[in-house]
Amino acid sequence: MNDVAIIGVGLHPFGRFGTKSAIEMAADAIQLALEDSGVAWKDIQFGIGGSYEVDNTDAVTRLVGLTGIPFTNVFNACATSASAIEQTADGIRSGKYDIGIAVGTDKHPRGAFTADPAMLGLPAWYAENGQFVTTKFFGMKANRYTLEHNISHETLARVAAKNYRNGGLNPKAFRRTEFSIEEILESPMLNYPLTAKMFCAPDEGAAAVIMCRGDLASKYTTNKPVYLRSTAIRTRTYGAYEVHATWAAVDEDVSPTVYAAKAAYEAAGIGPEDVDVAQLQDTDAGAEVIHMAETGLCADGDQEKLIAEGATEIGGSLPVNTDGGLIANGEPIGASGIRQVHELVLQLRGQAGDRQVPGEPKVGLAQVYGAPGTAAASILSL
Question: Which stretches make up the Thiolase N-terminal domain (predicted)?
Answer without folding.
Answer: 4-173
